[in-house]
Amino acid sequence: MRIAIVGLGGVGGYLAASLVKTSHKVAGFARGEHLAKIQTSGLKIVEDEKEWQVNLCAKSLQEADGYFDIVIFCVKSYDLEESCKAIASHIDSNSILISFSNGVSNADLLRELSDAKVLEGCIYILSHIQQAGVICKKGDVFAAVFGGDKDAVQKLSSVFDEANLRYKIPSDIKAAVWKKYIFISAFATLTTYYDANIRDVYENHYNEAKALLREIAEVAQTKGVDIYDEIENSLQTAGKVPYDSSTSMHLDFKNRKRDELETLSGYIVKEAKRNNIEVPFMEKMYLELQKRRIS
Ligand SMILES: NC(=O)C1=CN([C@@H]2O[C@H](COP(=O)(O)OP(=O)(O)OC[C@H]3O[C@@H](n4cnc5c(N)ncnc54)[C@H](OP(=O)(O)O)[C@@H]3O)[C@@H](O)[C@H]2O)C=CC1
Ligand SMILES: CC(C)(CO)C(=O)C(=O)O
């Protein structure tokens, strides 16, 4: 099969470097200095215990050619629409699309933009671009989670099996995606709002964290997803992460980089309004973070 990995950052770079070892034809799509470095020197992966380098067919999306059986989007959520449109002429209704971007509406967006077979998914990994051409992956955390059309799931899992990549196919994929989202939405919002790491938030703003998690679970309920049990689980996770751990949105705010505020906080406020429910904690923090971003 021909597989496209769109976005070769922390997530996509690691996936592409792993999938290139399979029998499939893998093309990676990137841009800027990162693309130039991958084209001239290959893609380097730095893990705790080892470093490895792969040669990867990497291009810009404008240079895409041919047909793709599988497209794995690994861009930030705000780049998903544009990158899906850019690859649209290289897929058809038999292609399989999946986004591993954080968020709970990525699959809906891909379905709006194409008539391909869209899988729902999310990913657990800790990785980032260390410098152009180099991806740094921390610890042993790795699990891709996906579900949807049975044949498509079977095809994607056979690819992950061949690459020796861990994955889960939960019986309820929507709940699984929300389970990842409730934690990252609440703690991305809180760590950014308080400019504090996850453990600080847990220790000093526990009640607010609980209230925010409850608001997110209420919005999930409007989608028919019951994740009230994840309120307690998320709090326990936050109480156990290493002291220096924060979220990528918090770091993006600190470094004045583009962030996923709309996906991680704004989405909850908008969906709550649409469904006539109150989310006062999330609304207060979202509006304040919007203001801070402009100033
Ligand atoms: N990194 C992690 O540990 C985890 C990340 N996630 C989620 O996964 C998603 C991806 O995150 P991550 O990999 O860290 O993000 P990165 O910013 O590291 O990687 C995304 C890459 O995609 C590139 N890109 C975006 N649009 C295009 C385009 N049109 N053409 C070519 N390249 C493009 C970006 O380029 P440029 O820099 O120029 O914009 C960037 O290099 C996010 O939603 C994140 O929240 C989820 C779990 C863990
Ligand atoms: C915390 C992490 C890395 C979890 O996978 C994440 O998704 C984020 O910070 O955006």
TrEMBL record:
InterPro entries: 6-PGluconate_DH-like_C_sf (IPR008927), 6PGD_dom2 (IPR013328), ApbA (IPR003710), KPA_reductase (IPR013752), KPR-Related (IPR051402), KPR_N (IPR013332), NAD(P)-bd_dom_sf (IPR036291). It comes from the Bacteria. Its EC number is 1.1.1.169. Keywords: NADP, Oxidoreductase, Pantothenate biosynthesis. Residues 172-288 form the Ketopantoate reductase C-terminal domain. Pathway: Cofactor biosynthesis; (R)-pantothenate biosynthesis; (R)-pantoate from 3-methyl-2-oxobutanoate: step 2/2. It is an enzyme of class 1 (oxidoreductase). GO terms for molecular function: 2-dehydropantoate 2-reductase activity. GO terms for cellular component: cytoplasm. Residues 3-139 form the Ketopantoate reductase N-terminal domain. The keyword Cell membrane does not apply. It catalyses: (R)-pantoate + NADP(+) = 2-dehydropantoate + NADPH + H(+). GO terms for biological process: pantothenate biosynthetic process. Catalyzes the NADPH-dependent reduction of ketopantoate into pantoic acid. NCBIfam families: apbA_panE. Belongs to the ketopantoate reductase family. This is 2-dehydropantoate 2-reductase. It comes from Sulfurimonas xiamenensis.
